[in-house]
Design brief:
- The protein is an alpha+beta fold.
- The protein is 31% helix and 23% strand.
- It has a 4-stranded antiparallel β-sheet with strand order 2-3-1-4.
Length: 90
């Protein structure tokens, strides 16, 4: 597995948890992106939304979650979900 292909997803039981954590991460300058939770790791409790965290931001994100006791379902790694040829946006 190439290190560049590994992405970290923070999963949530509901959208409110995800949006609240996104706000906390942004306030602390931690880059993140709202993304659909990949089916391979979504699980039964996940709402379908996730926050995508780059590997370089992972420890800062974990520290933010712990400092604010932010509710979340899980933090899961998954490789190969972003395909440069497929993911083009306007």
């Amino acid at each position: 597995m190439a290190k560049n292909d590994l992405r970290w997803y923070i999963l949530f039981a509901n959208y409110e948890q995800g949006l609240a954590l996104r706000d906390l991460l942004l306030k602390e300058g931690i880059k993140n992106r709202i993304a659909p939770a990949p089916r391979a790791i979504q699980g039964e409790l996940s709402c379908g939304m996730s926050l995508l965290i780059e590997p370089a931001e992972l420890e800062a994100a974990k520290a933010c979650i712990q400092a604010h006791q932010a509710p979340h379902h899980a933090i899961m790694p998954l490789e190969g979900q972003i395909k440069a040829r497929r993911d083009h946006y306007c």
